[in-house]
Amino acid sequence: MRIIGGSLARRLLRFPKTFQTRPMTDRAKETLFNVLGSAPEAASVLDLYAGSGSLGIESLSRGARHVYFVDSEKIATLCIERNLTALGLESIAHVIKMPAARALDMLEKRHEKFDLIFSDPPHNKGLTKKTLRLLDRSDTLRARGTVVVGHSNKENLPEDLQTLCVYRSIKIGQAFISFLGKK
C-alpha cells in the first residue's frame, strides 16, 4: 500500500498482515481523491475507522493542515503511529484509540470542526448507517465540508438524514464511495 499523490507520493505505508479489515485499494483511493480535487489542501481532517491511516495520510501528503485518526483497535493505532513517525508527520496528527461514536462525542465537546471527514467502517455490520446518523446530528462538519463514506453495495445509506445529503456515489468493485455535504 502506498501514498498516491502529493508531497509524499510513492512512499509506502505499513499495513499489518494480521489486520481483520481490508485496506482501500490504490485505484479506489485515486478515484476518491480525484473527486475531492483540492479539498484536502489546508483542511482539518477526521479519519474514522482509520485502519492503517491511509486516507488521512494521503490528505496530509496533499496539504491537509491537521488530521485526527480514530480507530478502536490497538493494532490499527500502533500502525498509524508508526506510519506517521516514518513519514515525519506526527506533529500534525493526533491518533485516538476509541470507538468512532465516543470519539465524535469527545471532539464535538471540544468544539473541533472538520473540512473533510472520512468514514470507512467494516462493511455489512451496520456501522455505516450508525456513523452517518451520528455525523448528521453532530456539529463537527464545517458548513462547506465533505463526508466521504466507503460502504458495501449491500448497504443502503440512511434516507432520513436531516443535515447531510449525498451529492455523489461511485461504484468501485463490490463497494461504493459516497460523498455527502450539508443540505
How do the helices and strands line up, and which of them pair or pack?
Layout: H1 26-36, E1 44-48, H2 54-61, E2 66-71, H3 74-87, E3 93-97, H4 100-109, E4 114-119, H5 127-137, E5 141-152, E6 164-172, E7 175-182
Parallel strand pairs: 1-2, 1-4, 2-3, 4-5
Antiparallel strand pairs: 5-7, 6-7
Compact summary:
With 183 residues, the chain is an alpha/beta fold.
Task: Give me the CATH superfamily.
Answer: Vaccinia Virus protein VP39
Give the fraction of residues assigned to helices.
Answer: 25-40%
For the largest beta sheet, what order do the strands appear in spatially?
A: 3-2-1-4-5-7-6
Record field, number of beta strands: 7
Key attributes of the depicted protein:
alpha/beta; 5 helices; Rossmann fold; 183 residues; 30% helix; single chain; 7-stranded mixed beta sheet
Walk me through this protein's architecture:
There is one protein chain. This protein has helices spanning 26-36, 54-61, 74-87, 100-109, 127-137, and strands at 44-48, 66-71, 93-97, 114-119, 141-152, 164-172, 175-182. By secondary structure, it is of the alpha/beta class. The chain has one domain (6-14, 28-182): Rossmann fold. It is 30% helix and 28% strand. It has a seven-stranded mixed beta sheet, with helices on both faces.
